[in-house]
């Protein structure tokens, strides 16, 4: 039976019965079962419809006649069952001559007392294809599962479900073989003959004593060496670093973008940002870093002021809200990505021994084949020909590896397995930026240095060190240990390599908005004259000022503390170290009053620490009025001159007149000139509330930051599921 693609034959059930009355019982049964086959084929075309088929008055029954199990064998030891001990529900007719005809698993069979034969073959094909230059075996098998009740005359049939292995296989990426086990069936001789014709006699074992037939056959290419190395690389993006201690990133000019070699070579400008995954307790991005890409920290992320990351960075700590850290937008993700485990065992105990056993010494300019070098290997100004098929080049090196000015040719792949302490790669090129052409595997004890230009994949999870020198261009992917990344490094990730996803769909499609404090410089100018001793006997000006400083947030806000009597002095200059500024506050009481000196000194310090991106504010507090002098300019005029200077330099002064002796009019005029506000209080205990009020008005001037994460990073694991296509159709039969 060819379930999909067979011709549709629509014949009325009763008319068919009439036309077959002159045939023998066997011929009649075979024709009716052939008609059933065609009906189910049609049903496979249109699963939503209900069709019917007819059976004559013969003794048809639906019986379980054995089971079928189909198991996919992985490239290595793994296996996955795609049809699990499925009961072979068989529509069977026994003739007067003692023969049986039966419809089973999509085929029609004839059975006698001691043998059986195939009348209509099940929909199974096992064929050799040569599309890639090497012979490959492909399996296609449509298995029919029948359920329900059968009756003489008209029967209705409806498709209930279908499952396809290429959609359900989860644990095996590369299918290397298949086992088909058909057990306890009356038609075991017929199955043996049919399967031997398809797979060859050497692949089929017939156990007559328990009516069982077993097939063990290869799928896809015969890759003798790969069968012995259990390497399934996990690749999240262009760059991955795994370390046991915090990682510091200071690269000035690190770019991580992507292209897809399946669409052609890398083209500058036609790319998107891609992932730099870091598996460590903390990723620290220093102020020197300038990154164009997407760093993904598996735990904590700390970004120093001055650092640049475009478009944003991800971190895993779900207890922290998305935010702007310094100048960098960040977003958290829901679940940490899986740690990429070292491949030391696979390289040391699988690849190297098998290549050594092959006993072919590595020669200059190697071509397709297996090679072994006991000790260091240096490939300089050489060509590696990977061939045109799937044999490829496999090289085992038990010492250090140096590749300098090496070109790969051909359409195959080269795999190098290295157990030495050092790998040094410089100017290594593959055809058309097809990074999957070259794979270099190393142990966790290896230090890796990449310089100038490298095309391919370095896969050494947890390696000692990963050094990428200044000005290096990488086309492919690098998976290593503790990173030391130079300046002006570009990693162009070949998307065809992505085999796993570091971020979920939810993580890649999130949006949030946040208000961040505007950047401020705030100076506190405090009256330290002798009158403060009785107007503020409990020195409440100190905790009031410290409370106000506590309302500020570094690094957005800076603060300074100054005092005055008849001259101005510094307690702490303007700084982002708010804890130190907080601790510098004291309450001194001595001398006369010259408010202008306090304003002048604070304005000088604002100028000394000028930052054009910051708003500048001054909170001025006094408990008195300017002391009259009989020499020099009028102190009130001097004070207003300083207010005009503040206004000219965009410094807003907020004033507090404390006690009945304070010059509230002068303080109000100072605030008015500079765009601030003025308050008069009678008790020292009220100063704290006024300072809070002033700062609340200043800090409430916020900038809204919006972040929309709308990305797509789909894993593209390399599979051969198209070479293993097992489909199970379940049909429900309902008799009249």
Number of strand elements:
45
What Rg is obtained from the alpha carbons, in whole angstroms?
A: 41 Å
Mean pLDDT: 86
Described by its quaternary structure, the protein is single chain
Computed structural class = alpha/beta
Secondary structure topology:
Layout: H1 13-19, H2 25-45, E1 50-55, E2 60-74, E3 79-94, E4 100-104, E5 107-111, E6 116-120, E7 123-129, E8 136-149, E9 153-164, H3 165-168, E10 175-183, H4 188-199, E11 204-207, E12 212-218, E13 239-242, E14 247-249, E15 252-259, E16 272-273, E17 275-279, E18 282-285, E19 290-297, E20 300-303, E21 308-311, E22 313-315, E23 323-325, E24 328-332, H5 344-358, E25 369-373, E26 377-385, E27 393-397, E28 401-409, E29 414-418, E30 422-429, E31 438-442, E32 447-459, E33 465-468, E34 473-480, E35 482-485, E36 489-494, H6 505-508, E37 509-517, E38 520-527, H7 532-535, H8 541-550, E39 557-564, E40 568-575, H9 578-583, H10 595-608, E41 615-622, H11 635-648, E42 651-658, H12 664-674, E43 678-681, H13 687-699, E44 702-710, E45 724-735
Parallel strand pairs: 8-45, 13-17, 13-34, 14-18, 15-19, 15-36, 17-19, 18-20, 19-21, 19-22, 22-24, 25-27, 26-28, 27-29, 28-30, 29-31, 30-32, 31-32, 32-33, 32-34, 33-35, 34-36, 38-39, 38-41, 41-42, 42-43
Antiparallel strand pairs: 1-9, 2-3, 2-10, 3-4, 4-5, 5-6, 7-8, 9-45, 10-12, 11-12, 15-16, 23-24, 37-44, 39-40
Helix pairs in contact: 8-13, 10-11, 11-12
């Amino acid at each position: 039976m060819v379930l999909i693609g067979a011709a549709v034959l629509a014949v009325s059930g009763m008319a068919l019965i009439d036309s077959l009355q002159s045939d023998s019982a066997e011929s009649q049964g075979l024709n009716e079962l052939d008609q059933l086959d065609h009906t189910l084929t049609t049903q496979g075309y249109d699963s939503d419809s209900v069709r019917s088929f007819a059976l004559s008055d013969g003794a048809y029954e639906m019986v379980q006649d054995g089971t079928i199990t189909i198991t996919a064998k992985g490239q290595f030891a793994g296996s996955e069952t795609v049809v699990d001990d499925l009961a072979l529900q068989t529509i069977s007719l026994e003739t007067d001559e003692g023969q049986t005809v039966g419809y089973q698993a999509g085929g029609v069979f004839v059975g006698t007392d001691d043998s059986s034969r195939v009348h209509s073959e099940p929909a199974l094909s096992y064929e050799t294809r040569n599309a890639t230059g090497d012979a490959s075996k492909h399996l296609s098998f449509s298995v029919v599962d029948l359920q329900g009740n059968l009756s003489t005359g008209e029967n209705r049939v409806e498709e209930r479900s279908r499952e396809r292995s290429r959609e359900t296989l989860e644990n095996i990426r590369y299918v290397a073989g298949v086992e088909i086990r058909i057990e306890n069936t009356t038609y075991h001789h017929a199955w043996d003959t049919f399967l031997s014709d398809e797979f060859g006699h050497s692949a089929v074992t017939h156990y007559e004593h328990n009516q069982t037939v077993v097939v063990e056959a290869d799928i896809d290419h015969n890759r003798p060496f790969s069968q012995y190395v259990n390497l399934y690389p996990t690749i999240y993006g262009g760059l991955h670093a795994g370390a046991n201690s915090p990682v510091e990133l200071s690269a000035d000019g690190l770019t991580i973008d992507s292209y897809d070699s399946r669409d052609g070579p890398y083209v500058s400008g036609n790319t998107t940002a891609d992932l730099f995954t870091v598996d460590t307790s903390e990723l620290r991005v220093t102020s020197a870093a300038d990154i164009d890409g997407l760093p993904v920290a598996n735990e904590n992320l700390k970004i120093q002021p001055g650092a640049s990351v475009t478009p944003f960075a991800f971190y895993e700590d779900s207890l922290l809200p998305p935010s702007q850290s310094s100048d960098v937008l960040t977003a958290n993700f829901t679940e940490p990505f899986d740690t990429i485990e070292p491949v030391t065992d696979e390289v040391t105990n699988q690849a190297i021994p098998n290549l050594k056993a092959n006993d072919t010494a590595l020669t200059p300019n190697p071509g397709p084949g297996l090679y072994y070098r006991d000790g260091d290997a240096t490939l300089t100004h050489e060509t590696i020909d990977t061939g045109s098929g799937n044999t490829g080049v496999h090289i085992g090196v038990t010492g250090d590896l140096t590749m300098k000015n090496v070109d790969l040719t051909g359409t195959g792949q080269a795999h190098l397995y290295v157990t030495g302490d050092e790998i040094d790669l410089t100017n290594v090129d593959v055809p058309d930026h097809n990074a999957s052409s070259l794979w270099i595997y190393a142990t966790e004890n290896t230090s890796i240095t990449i310089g100038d230009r490298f095309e391919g994949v370095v896969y050494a999870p947890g390696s000692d060190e990963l050094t990428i020198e200044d000005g290096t261009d990488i086309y492919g992917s690098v998976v290593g240990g503790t990173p030391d990344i130079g300046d002006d490094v570009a990693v162009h990730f070949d998307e065809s390599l992505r085999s796993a996803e570091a971020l979920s769909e939810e993580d890649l499609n999130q949006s949030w908005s946040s208000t961040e404090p505007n950047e401020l410089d705030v100076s506190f100018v405090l009256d330290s004259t002798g009158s403060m001793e009785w107007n503020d006997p409990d020195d409440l000006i100190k905790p009031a000022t410290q409370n106000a400083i506590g309302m500020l947030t570094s690094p957005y806000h800076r603060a300074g503390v100054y005092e005055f009597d008849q001259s101005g002095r510094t307690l702490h200059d303007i700084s982002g170290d708010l804890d130190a500024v907080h601790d510098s506050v004291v309450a001194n009481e001595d001398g006369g009053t010259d408010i202008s000196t306090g304003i002048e000194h604070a304005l000088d310090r604002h100028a000394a620490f000028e930052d054009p991106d910051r708003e500048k504010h001054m909170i001025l507090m006094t408990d008195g009025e300017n002391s009259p002098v009989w020499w020099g300019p009028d102190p009130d005029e001097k004070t207003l001159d300083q207010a005009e200077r503040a206004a000219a330099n965009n410094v807003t002064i907020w004033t507090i007149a404390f006690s009945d002796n304070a010059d509230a009019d002068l303080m109000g005029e100072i605030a008015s000139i500079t765009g601030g506000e003025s308050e008069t209080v009678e008790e020292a205990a009220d100063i704290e509330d006024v300072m809070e009020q002033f700062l609340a008005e200043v800090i409430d001037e916020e900038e809204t930051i919006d972040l929309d994460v709308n990305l797509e990073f789909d894993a593209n694991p390399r599979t051969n599921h198209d070479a293993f296509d097992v489909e199970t159709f379940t049909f429900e039969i309902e008799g009249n």
